[in-house]
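Expect chain and fold; see below:
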Amino acid sequence: MSLTVVLSSFALLFLAEMGDKTQLMTMTLAHRYRALPVAIGVCAAFLVLNLLAVAVGEVLFRYVPRSAVLLVAGAMFLFFAWKSWRDAGEPEEEAAERRGGGGVVLSSFALIFVAELGDKTQLALIALVASTGDAWSVFTGATLALWSVSLLGVAVGSTLLSRVPRAYMHRVAALMFAIFGVLALAQPLMSWLEPWVGMIVRPM
């Protein structure tokens, strides 16, 4: 397991999810119900979602050429950068409405699972696994990040967001997505240019 991959995955997913609709949903659930069952349901949802993302990313890493994966991952990260920057200028998401029936844990799990399935953070996790090949490092960093954001939403959500503007967090996340995108695109580009550079600088 690579500590660098764990930390970079943690930082990227933490900033991407901070102030997102899922954290606002978690805050709303925690205001209406007891904190512990909400936290359990939300964290369980992210655990299942991340396992699904890791499985997809691992398949891509094993069976798809690395250069193709990096090009797609780079394009995805740049798209997420644009989307996060655009979202920074939008008004706050409306709070999730209270759902009836079932336990709080199950309701929290279902709400977050549906909201995050196919969301940019899950797609970013797939891209990270596919581009690095280090599934468990990405899974560890991403899961810890999403759990941390969720627990912050449960514990101090409204206070935290009143001190740290949502727009600021989205813009920082956009910059991080852009950096990851450029780095992912640079790797296949450099591998393609390397033979040509070698021919140019080769002594006569």
